[in-house]
Write a structure and sequence with these properties.
Helix content of chain A: 55-70%
Strand order of the largest sheet of chain B: 6-7-8-3-9-10
Mean pLDDT of chain A: 83
Order of helices and strands of chain B: EEEHEEHEHHHEHEHEEH
Order of helices and strands of chain A: HHEHEHEHEHHHH
Distance between the termini of chain A: 24 Å
Strand order of the largest sheet of chain A: 2-3-1-4
Radius of gyration of chain B: 18 Å
Low-confidence stretches of chain B: 226-233
Mean pLDDT of chain B: 90
Radius of gyration of chain A: 31 Å
Number of helices of chain A: 9
Structural class of chain A: alpha+beta
Helix content of chain B: 25-40%
Largest sheet of chain A: 4 strands, antiparallel
Strand content of chain A: 5-15%
Largest sheet of chain B: 6 strands, mixed
Oligomer: heterodimer
Number of helices of chain B: 8
Shape of chain B: globular
Structural class of chain B: alpha/beta
Number of strands of chain A: 4
């Protein structure tokens, strides 16, 4: 392919985009609207998942240490074993003295009445064990129960079950809904591009009669589809990018919604931007290539 | 240049487009194809453009055997001929200059060749002053002259014209015929399907008359008026 032919394809694509501006605008609008809805839903789903993850992050397995376990065993044997477990993200050790001080500090007034406890502390040493994912809870518990130095708090089981079930339901529902929405978007966009191309059926026929090869006709349409997809993908990506930060700012300013924790914009848009633009470009490209094909048989 | 050997075309609905046509057209000839509607004129043109496929028989054009021509070689074949239609078929979003230049871009002519040749051809068809106009800013005659310029810009050895004067008033039709005659004088073979009795009679060229998909007359001279009247009835 000669450089001047490539230049011809690109010029023709831009030119056609401007000349057929009404159809181009309709196509871009369809692409943008569809991808906007998909992106919006993705933002929502990602934030729900993030919120649940944050909640999970605050849940830990509490393991009390038997009184007769010497301090060096605890430090040099038990703690490293816990930290080396593949399911464990972090372990916090709370000594019995620390636990008592924390407890006493929590008492507003009247703490003096319990000061005698300082001489005879009834609290045990404690490990707070945080997992990478609550889904590992069961297998972690099996390992922990095999460690005779520890007494485990078993009440976590039902909480973990509820949390993981909720997360599973949210993730599966999100995936299915995003998939369905994306599919609808693809059909809608392909249809719009097909109409755009079919409105130029006569033009394609004339080119064929004059002796144009299929690819000579096809390339400008493909580049045009790519441009429509790119612009149509960029618009929702940028709207979501700036709209998201603005909306998060507004919600964070509302006092009674303080408990909500949002995914940082930078983290989420590492995926949303390429997803929106990539989806737009891919659909625009494939849509126009497929649509032109049917009119080339002249 | 062109040879039809027992060429038969039967459409899917059973209608016969051509029935065993044997015909030979030599290089440099000017041939009228005449006949009533449904006589096979359009089928003949479609077969020449390879827009339709033969049911049986063979057609040779510019050294190509059309039945053996693969789809991927079709563009190259079509570049060996210029085509003019009754409805002009210009690219409406391109100017006169761009419509003509488009045919040259397809054959990957250099920009310099395009800049040199297109004005020459526009001058030949008398459209130099309309180079920047769009098709919808032109009269019917000017649109047909643009189509003619596009058809001849790559200097094809063959020009196929399907009712090129059908949408034009008599004076404009004669302008187009004069142009076609000039192009023929430059050595281009012309095959023109037409209904226009007066033009065929006045030009005194070879006339191929079709009736019910068959060749009924092939000789130089005007339209066979008696037979044409019978056909019109």
């Amino acid at each position: 392919m000669r450089p001047r032919t490539i230049r011809h394809y690109i010029t023709e694509a831009f030119r056609s985009l401007v000349i057929n501006r009404l159809m181009s605008f309709a196509s871009i609008l369809t692409v943008a609207s569809c991808i906007f809805i998909v992106s919006l839903f993705y933002l929502l789903a990602a934030n729900i998942d993030y919120f649940l993850q944050q909640m999970e992050g605050n849940i830990s397995i509490i393991a009390f240490v038997d009184d007769d376990v010497p301090a060096d065993v605890m430090q040099n044997q038990v703690l490293p074993r816990l930290e080396n477990m593949p399911q464990v993200q972090s372990v916090i050790f709370i000594s019995r003295d620390q636990a008592l001080r924390d407890w006493l500090q929590g008492l507003e007034g009247g703490a003096e009445a319990f000061e005698s406890l300082l001489l005879n502390n009834p609290l045990p040493h404690t490990f707070e064990i945080y997992l990478y994912d609550l889904r590992y809870h069961e297998e972690a518990m099996v390992i922990l129960q095999g460690m005779p130095e520890l007494n485990l708090n078993h009440e976590l089981g039902s909480t973990v079950e509820i949390m993981t079930t909720v997360r599973d339901v949210v993730q599966i529902t999100s995936l299915v809904l995003i998939g369905v929405l994306a599919l609808i978007a693809v059909v809608l966009i392909m249809n719009t591009i097909r109409i755009t191309v079919s409105s130029r059926q006569v033009e394609i026929g004339i080119m064929k009669y004059v002796g144009a090869t299929d690819w000579f006709i096809r390339w400008p349409f493909i580049i045009e589809g790519l441009l429509i997809g790119f612009i149509g993908g960029m618009i929702p990506a940028l709207v979501c990018r700036f709209g998201y930060n603005w909306l998060v700012g507004v919600i964070e300013g509302i006092e009674w919604l303080n408990f909500l924790d949002f995914m940082p914009g930078e983290d989420i848009f590492v995926y949303v931007l390429p997803l929106a633009v990539g989806l737009g470009v891919l659909i625009g490209l494939v849509g126009s290539a497929v649509s032109v094909r049917r009119y080339l048989k002249v | 240049m062109i040879e039809f050997v027992k060429a038969t075309k039967i459409y899917e609905n059973g209608a016969r487009g051509l029935d065993g046509l044997d015909l030979r057209i030599e290089k440099g000839e000017f041939v009228f194809v005449v006949g009533a509607s449904g006589s096979g004129k359009t089928t003949l043109v479609k077969l020449l453009l390879k827009e339709a496929e033969l049911s049986s028989g063979r057609i040779f054009v510019n050294g190509h055997e059309l039945s053996a021509l693969k789809r991927r070689h079709l563009p190259k074949y079509r570049r060996t001929m210029g085509v003019v239609f009754q409805d002009f078929r210009l690219l409406k979003n391109k100017t006169v200059y761009e419509n003509v230049a488009f045919a040259m871009k397809i054959v990957e002519a250099t920009p310099r060749e395009i800049r040199r040749t297109v004005p020459q051809v526009l001058n030949l068809v008398g459209l130099s002053k309309k180079a920047k106009a769009y098709p919808n800013q032109l009269s019917g005659g000017e649109q047909q002259r643009t189509a003619l310029a596009r058809a001849i810009v790559n200097r094809p050895p063959l020009l196929v014209a399907d009712e090129p004067t059908g949408n034009l008033d008599p004076d404009t039709a004669w302008e187009i015929m004069t142009l076609l005659e000039d192009i023929n004088d430059l050595g281009t073979t012309i095959v023109m399907a037409t209904h226009a009795h007066d033009i065929v009679d006045a030009m005194q060229k070879r006339v191929i008359q079709l009736e019910q998909a068959q060749l009924v007359r092939d000789h130089a001279g005007g339209y066979d008026n008696n037979q044409a009247e019978e056909l019109d009835q």
